[in-house]
Amino acid sequence: MTTDRTELEALLPLPPATFHILLALVDQERHGYAIIQDVEERTDGELRLSAGTLYRSVARMVEQGLIAEVLKRPAARLDDERRRYYRITPFGTAVARAEMARLSQLVRLARARGLTPETT
Amino acid sequence: MMRALERFYRVLLYLYPASFRNEYGRALTATFVARLRDMSGPARPLLGALAAVGDVVPNAIAAHWEILRHDVRYAGRSLRASPGFTLTAILVIALGVGANTAAFSLADFVLLRPLPFHEPDRLVDLWESTPGYPRMEFSPANYRDMKAMTHSFAAMGAYSDRTMNLVGTGEPRHLTVGIMTPHAMPVLGVPPLLGRAITPEDSTNEQVVVLSYGLWQSQFGGDAGIVGRAVRLDGEPYSVIGVMPAAFAFPTREIDAWVPFLLREAFFADRSDNFLSVVARLRPGVTTEQAATDVAAVAARLEQLDPRANEHTSAVVVDMRDEMSARSRMLVLALCGAALCILLLACANLASLLLARSAHRSRELAVRAALGAGRERIVRQLVTESMGLALFGGIAGVAIAVAGVPVLARLVPDSLPVSGQPSVDLRVLLAAGALVLLTGLMFGVGPAVAAGRSRALDALRGGARGGMRTQRLRAVLVTIEVAACVVLLVSSGLLIRAVLRIQGTDPGFRAEGVLTLRTELTGEKAAFGAQRVAFYDRVLQDVRALPGVQNAAYMSGLPMVMGGGIWPTTIAGAPVVRDASNTVGLRFVTPQYFAAMGITLRAGRDIADADRRESPPVAVVSESFAKRMWPNENAIGKQFTIITIPRTIVGVVGNVRVRGLERPSEPQVYLPATQLPDGMMVFYAPKDLVVRSTVPAATLLPAVRRIIAGADPDQPISDVRMLTELVASQTSSRVTQLRLLGMLATIALVIAGVGIHGLLAFAVSQRSRELGVRRALGEQVGSIVGRVMREGLVLAAAGVAIGVFIAYLAARAMGALLAGVQPGDPLTIGLAAVLCFVTAVVGCVRPAVRAASVDPITVLRGD
């Protein structure tokens, strides 16, 4: 999987929107607006993706193989037929993990220097 | 309300790239609508609309930017992969853009840019007009009456120019000075850089001067405290009242300074003494045509008022912008036309190169299409490539233009009232940018659309054959290239013939070995005969004694330098009528003038030392004058009257092209310099020294300078040149233009040859299968070669026919430049057509040979 490894590393660091979209899809498939809502909730309203930003990220992430469109749809009456559903791919999960490792490593390094998030 | 907002959002989606919109448009709308539902409150419509704009606009820009970045990277890779193509394309564009940018910078400077005066659209020149002289200066009395009686003008002023000698600031310097009536400078409305311009408050004092920027810099070191200082002009103190800005040049680029000119009562006596140029500012809302009617009506009244002096005299109004000669204008326009031809050729050539390239790349493009790239994305990718080429070519082209513009500066007519030189400035750069954009689109979009249209499946199967449409496009491109080439060649050819014809014109004198220079006497030295003659005598005597000098003479205005100096003549007793049928070019000369100039003495004698002031008035006349007045008689001994004095003809000399090689000249009358009346006609005081010698000018000149300084240390020397240079300068702007056109025509020929070759080679490679099948079916090699050649030559013949037709129209339009060469000159057209056709044949040969060598087996196996 060396190709995957280099491909994966080429994507790091992830843009924040990309990372958040991956996080939103880790536990379940979601449609676009659900992703926006999930990101918004998790960040306490700090990151509000607009439709355009979301789908530009989605387009890129599909191309990069991080997520894929789900063609199986929920029952029609529960659904707006214009919605599109996405799931995370194994490669996407791997990239998300790698990004997480990168961020943890950074945080560890910062702590080792005695830096804490709280201001004194 | 929700629906309206949704519709608004859907319209905004058109800002996105089509590929993105098609893929995600519906999902975007659904998401936006869902977000809208979550909003509440009375401000929802406004917030919704703002959210829509805030969502779409930045994201659309970002999406386009991403595609552009991707396309640029891709284009860079693919252009680097074929350096031959890339360099050729960039070079061709650079030539096209360079030629056009340079031509535009000249055209803009000479023809387009508003003149550097206040509201220049309202500035006009007024001229008197008589039969044979459509634009003649005004006499002071006619000017005064015209100014008083017309109603179309907000302001009017008159001016002329004279030379003055500036002494006391280093070497004595000879200045060309604009002499302005106090109302003339305010007409132009240009504020001075320092101090003030000449205004009506100078109506009582002539001893003030306004300096041009150039003179201020060169003679006074740009001294900011110059205003108020006194300078000596012609030995008189003049107070400097102002300095004009660098851009100000009036009436021509050659003026060094301006002094007031007061029209004294004596000037108004003679309505036939025409020396005032008139400039006026139209009243707001008055058109040039209305002003012309007004002026013509006043001229008619003036004719009634003084029927003798103003017989057949009318007056005309000319927009100042249109004042330059048709020839100067044509020189510039012809250059622009040639540059456009090059651009057209360059674009046709690039379009064909790209067409061939996209055919070669059809598999690559088909694969991309199969992988889901929409047609729009492919076209966009290809246009990005061609725009990239255009951009690099454009940069190189601007560099060519920057290098070329100084050469073009020679084509700026001297009469243009704009100082400085054309340059590649912001305006020109903007034009060049537009040109690059246009070029990139012109040669890029056609092939790109054609490629985008090509059926993906065909290409994947490996059978990409140019469809009918690309074949037609190709045929059109070849025809355009040949036609543009013919137009350029015919035009250059006609101009070459015109220049040869002009250079072959006999000027009426022998220019070789003649040094000329000007010592312009001014003030009292010029006005009073005794001082004047003493100066000439001393200089001439010493110069003639120099080793190697054969003849030396003074005269009042070299041919081609001074074209005018026109006076009416009569035969004793008859009334003076001023029209072209009885005017002559008048010159005052010392003995030896004809010998020094190499003007042939046909009969009688030269002006002699014995022709002094008190001896009988005599004249030497040109053959044309003798023939006009006494068609079948010997003119020697005949009498005629000029400037009220009857004179006896003592000699007849050959005709001289006084007005230059390209214009007809009036007959010439030469009078002894000693017989120029005192205090009058200072303009006619001899000033040009003409020396014929066998030694080089470099040896002669220092000695002549010493002699002049010995005769009068304050006397400046100017206009030092060989007579041959003077004759050459007659055609220098044409020769410059010819070199440029010749260069452009050569470039065109090469581009067209390469283009035709490339197109046919491409056509052959596209048809190699068909040709292989033909070979397999037994068609002879000769027949195949003939087939390919015929195809190319039919197109070339069509191009030649169209080109000849356009070239003929172009040649008729530039008739002013052709000096009598016929626009349909068969030799030129024939040669140009043959040359283009031969180029086409050469271009056809290799592809035809390649077609013949197609191996049927290989081709058929390739399927």
Helix content range of chain A:
55-70%
The oligomeric state is heterodimer
Strand content of chain B: 15-25%
Numbering strands along the chain, what is their spatial order in the largest sheet of chain A? 1-3-2
Number of strands of chain B: 22
Helix share bin of chain B: 40-55%
Task: List low-confidence stretches of chain A.
Answer: none
Q: What count of helical segments of chain B does DSSP give?
A: 24
Instruction: Average the pLDDT over all residues of chain B and give the rounded result.
Output: 84
Low-confidence stretches of chain B: 459-466
Structural class of chain A: mainly alpha
Q: Using a beta-carbon cutoff below 8 angstroms, give the protein chain pair with the largest interface and the number of residues from each chain.
A: A-B, 16 and 23 residues
**Compute the gyration radius of chain A: what is it?**
16 Å
Largest sheet of chain B: 6 strands, mixed, barrel
Straight-line distance between termini of chain B: 61 Å
Distance between the termini of chain A: 46 Å
Percent strand of chain A equals: 5-15%
Instruction: Based on Cα principal axes, name the global outline of chain B.
Output: globular
Helix-strand pattern of chain A: HHEHHEEH
Mean pLDDT rating of chain A: 86
Question: Overview of this structure, please?
Answer:
The complex is a heterodimer of chains A (120) and B (863). Chain A has 120 residues and is mainly α. Chain A is built from 5 helices and 3 strands; from the N terminus they run ααβααββα. Chain A has a 3-stranded antiparallel beta sheet with strand order 1-3-2. In chain A, helix 2 (16-26) crosses helix 3. Chain A is globular, with a radius of gyration of 16 Å. Chain A starts with a helix and ends in an 8-residue tail after the last helix. The model of chain A has no long low-confidence stretch (mean pLDDT 86). Chain B has 863 residues and is α+β, with helices and mostly antiparallel strands. Chain B has 24 helices and 22 strands. Chain B has a 6-stranded mixed β-barrel. In chain B, strand 7 and strand 8 form a beta hairpin. The longest helix of chain B has 44 residues, at 723-766. Chain B is globular, with a radius of gyration of 36 Å. The two termini of chain B are 61 Å apart. Residues 459-466 of chain B have low confidence and may be disordered. At the A-B interface, helix 3 and helix 4 of A face helix 2 and helix 3 of B.
